[in-house]
Design goal:
Elements: H1 2-16, E1 21-22, E2 26-27, E3 32-38, E4 41-52, E5 58-59, E6 64-67, E7 73-77, E8 85-88, E9 91-94, E10 101-111, E11 117-123, E12 131-136, E13 142-144, E14 150-156, E15 159-166, E16 174-180, H2 187-209, H3 216-241, H4 247-269
Parallel strand pairs: 1-5, 3-12
Antiparallel strand pairs: 2-4, 3-4, 4-10, 6-9, 7-10, 8-9, 11-16, 12-15, 13-16, 14-15
Helix pairs in contact: 3-4
């Protein structure tokens, strides 16, 4: 069996070195859309498996783009995501050719909202073989979509989640998910708190950089820090879901990561585009 496995692996590696041919790829059935909340902020993660079922590399003809929903901020690729995928401002560019098998692409962003209702609309450049959406159940939250076929509430590591599945989504189609019962504060309280936070952050930054703005090197450091925090948060959720962390340790670690992530993303959101570096580059 080991000899057969070795021959098969060698054959796959040899095939991967062959010239790419024209074809199509899909987002496999293990792809996930995950919705979580940090305080009253909606965090969206795309955990995508790009599947090439051929035995040679596939060239789809041009890069694939995932354009994030309007208003999305702080987008970044997660640790472990393929280097074929690069965040460029308000979109994710995925370059080919794609090797045989599965290419993992993982990205996250923050989607601001106001009030108790919001809609997530995402167009996909390739077909999704089977839709799966999971949302952290906070308060009276509900999710709905004409593309959902089944939905249930379940616990993942002791935390309630709404999990919905659906059929195939064709390339070019848009997934639309409506969220109701969103956690929120009154507009006045949120705006006052945000204004105070911005003032404190601005004063701190002004003192730190001498009023000259954020240098490119500092922005790049923040970007790397954000990606590391995203990856740590995903890993923490996986460990908790597998029962490898007790509730107290999980809660403490998650709170630490969330606070630090919010701080870093806030600084990046306010980094000047001209002369300060592109926060998503």
């Amino acid at each position: 069996l080991e000899a057969a496995a070795g021959r098969d692996r060698a054959a796959r590696e040899e095939a991967a070195q062959q010239p790419a041919r024209q074809g199509v790829v899909v987002f496999g059935g293990e792809s996930r859309v995950i919705l979580e909340f940090q305080d009253d902020r909606l965090q969206v993660f795309y955990l995508l498996d790009i599947v090439n079922n051929a035995r040679t590399p596939i060239d789809v003809g041009e890069p694939m783009y995932i354009v994030f929903p309007e208003g999305a901020t702080g987008a970044g690729a997660l640790d472990g995501s393929s280097t074929l995928a690069v965040v460029q401002g308000d979109r994710l560019r995925i370059n080919g050719p794609f090797p045989p098998g599965t290419t993992q692409v993982q990205v996250g962003y923050r989607l601001p909202y106001r009030g108790e209702t919001a809609t997530l609309s995402q167009q996909w450049p390739a077909a999704i073989e089977q839709l799966f959406v999971a949302a952290e159940k906070v308060g009276e939250l509900q999710i709905a979509s004409p593309q959902f076929q089944q939905q249930q509430e379940a616990n993942a590591g002791g935390a309630p989640f709404l999990m919905a599945t659906g059929g195939r989504i064709n390339a070019g189609d848009t997934l639309t998910v409506t969220l109701t019962g969103l956690p929120h504060q009154s507009t006045l309280i949120r705006d006052v708190g945000l204004g105070t936070g911005l003032l404190i952050l601005l004063l701190g930054f002004w003192a730190a950089v001498g009023g000259r703005g954020i240098r490119k090197g500092h922005t790049e450091t923040l970007t790397r820090r954000r990606e590391k925090l995203f990856a740590d948060l995903v890993a923490l959720e996986q460990q908790h879901g597998q029962g490898r962390l007790d509730k107290a340790r999980y809660g403490s670690r998650r709170q630490t990561l969330v606070v630090e992530l919010e701080r870093v993303m806030g600084e990046l959101d306010r980094a000047p585009v001209g002369g300060g570096g592109d926060l998503a580059a």
